[in-house]
């Protein structure tokens, strides 16, 4: 790869991976029947890691990669840090506010018992802000040290804080204390709560984003071999850590950071080789260049259908025959695939018209 390509602020492989992650989010978030989710699209109940559990970490990893590609060259040129810092913080704030607005819409239209302040976009916004500040303020060595400190420090907190059961772990207890009834799960009778995008577990998510930042810097400098080696090392270390700290997406444990980050590094290295170097089609690119807009639009679509009582009649009318012919799980999967296809057509048209909705 040429030096100019290495310094390019945008790579088709990165857009493709980001887009595939968004499409996968839509797939797992929109089954036709939550009571009969197609088994491979299920998250691990607690400890463990299914292919579905890779999706959100892949997206956060790509957030870090994108920060490296967009800011790395400007930092090297000596551009003023203050305007870049302001841009990072303003975009992060917009992402968080969008997440809050979507949750407000769901609370209002779907008659949810409580408004939930935490969520996927809120976590993305926080990680984007902190990783962007780290890119602008810390040297590469200090970024690695921050990543190591997050992994070890968060692990120490979890292990010191008691059992890693869903009810007894420190992160859930903190969510219960600080979020209370506004957590994703809340039991008023026992005072127990839990949020999969909770407060303390954001430390693990931030570590994933920082790993993406360092991987993006390797990619920007043409370090394909180093990127692959980083992926293999992360996989090995993550797996070796599991006897003491299990893989757990809802806690976003350090072993989960390394395991999912390792796969993300290898996926990035492979996508770069195939798409950027060999010219293979950048599958998923249309989703990738309108990632947040597609996620938010799909969320609004689901909330409006559910809120106005249209989702169940739509599913029954369009996919009831599949349910009778193939079974409820297959019909649920077919609806999810159709939902993704509709949004694939939408983002394809936006891309063709060069309409890119930036948050």
From TrEMBL:
It comes from the Bacteria. InterPro entries: HGSNAT_cat (IPR012429), MFS_trans_sf (IPR036259). Keywords: Membrane, Transmembrane, Transmembrane helix. Residues 10-159 form the Heparan-alpha-glucosaminide N-acetyltransferase catalytic domain. The chain crosses the membrane at residues 54-71, 92-109, 121-138, 145-162, 198-215, 227-244, 256-275, 287-311, 331-350. This is Heparan-alpha-glucosaminide N-acetyltransferase domain-containing protein.
């Amino acid at each position: 790869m040429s030096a100019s390509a290495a310094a390019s602020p945008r790579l088709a492989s990165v857009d493709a991976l980001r887009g595939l992650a968004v499409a996968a989010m839509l797939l797992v978030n929109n089954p036709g029947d939550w009571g009969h989710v197609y088994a491979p699209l299920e998250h691990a109940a607690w400890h463990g890691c299914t292919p579905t559990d890779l999706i959100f970490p892949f997206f956060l990893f790509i957030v870090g990669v994108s920060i490296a590609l967009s800011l790395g060259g400007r930092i090297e040129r000596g551009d003023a840090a203050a305007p870049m810092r302001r841009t990072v913080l303003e975009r992060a704030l917009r992402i968080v506010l969008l997440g809050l607005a979507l949750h407000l819409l769901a609370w209002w239209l779907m008659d949810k018992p409580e408004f939930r302040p935490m969520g996927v976009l809120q976590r993305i916004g926080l990680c984007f802000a902190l990783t962007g500040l780290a890119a602008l303020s810390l040297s590469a060595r200090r970024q690695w040290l921050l990543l190591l400190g997050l992994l070890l420090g968060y692990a120490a907190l979890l292990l010191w804080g008691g059992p890693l059961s869903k009810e007894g772990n420190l992160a859930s207890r903190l969510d219960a204390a600080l979020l209370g009834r506004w957590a994703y799960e809340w039991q008023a009778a026992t005072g127990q709560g839990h949020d999969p995008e909770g407060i303390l577990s954001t430390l693990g998510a931030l570590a994933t984003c920082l790993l993406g930042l360092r991987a993006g810097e390797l990619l920007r400098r043409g370090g394909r071999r180093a990127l692959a080696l980083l992926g293999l090392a992360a996989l090995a270390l993550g797996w070796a850590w599991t006897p003491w700290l299990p893989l757990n997406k809802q806690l976003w444990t350090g072993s989960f950071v390394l395991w999912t980050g390792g796969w993300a590094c290898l996926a990035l290295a492979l996508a770069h080789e195939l798409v950027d170097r060999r010219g293979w089609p950048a599958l998923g690119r249309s989703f990738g260049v309108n990632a947040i807009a597609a996620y938010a639009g799909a969320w609004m679509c689901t909330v409006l259908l559910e809120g106005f009582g249209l989702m169940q009649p739509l599913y029954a009318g369009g996919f009831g025959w599949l349910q009778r012919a193939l079974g409820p799980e297959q019909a649920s999967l077919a609806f999810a695939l159709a939902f993704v296809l509709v949004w694939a057509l939408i983002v394809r048209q936006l891309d063709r018209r060069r309409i890119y909705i930036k948050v």
